[in-house]
Amino acid sequence: KANADREKFVQNMEVAVETAAAIASSRSWGLMEAASRPCQQTCRRATVRQASETLWDTGLLSRGNADELTVTSVKGALLACLPNLESANAEELAGEALIGFLARSKVSSGAEDEAPMRSLLR
């Protein structure tokens, strides 16, 4: 069960970041996809996955500042692979990803009354 929850968390985070990146590109934020190389896109996907796995594995998500940790982690993953991306844009994209992640997690868990992130920690 723990491995299934971990994989669900990681997959939901990956989908959230991909969705946020697609939305950002459609808004012409001058973000990374159009200007980045294919290797940078591959790096971004791999680094977001690794960051998500690390977030889960450390157990820090249950300490009350999961939102801040998630945004910081995703922002770092984006900046590691996309050096031309401005820090403010990376943070905004990470925030959008977190919002999408929480909405997706709430729907998939069916948890109406509890925090979506917390429902993934069970």
List keywords for this structure.
122 residues; mainly alpha; 5 helices; 0% strand
What topology emerges from the helices and strands here?
Blueprint: H1 2-26, H2 38-58, H3 66-81, H4 87-109, H5 116-120
Descriptive overview:
This protein has 122 residues and is mainly alpha-helical. The protein has helices at 2-26, 38-58, 66-81, 87-109, 116-120. Helix 1 (2-26) runs antiparallel to helix 2 (38-58), helix 2 (38-58) packs antiparallel against helix 3 and helix 3 (66-81) packs across helix 4 (87-109). It is globular and about 40 Å long. The longest helix is centred in the N-terminal third of the chain and has 25 residues, at 2-26. The model is unreliable at 116-122 (pLDDT under 50). The termini are close together.
Measured distance between first and last alpha carbons: 9 Å
Shape: globular
**Could you state the order of secondary-structure elements as H and E?**
HHHHH
Helix content: over 70%
Low-confidence stretches: 116-122
Strand content: under 5%
Work out the helix count: 5
Task: Summarize model confidence as the mean pLDDT.
Answer: 82
Compute the number of strand runs: 0
Summarize the structure.
By secondary structure, the chain is an all-alpha fold. The protein contains five helices and no strands.
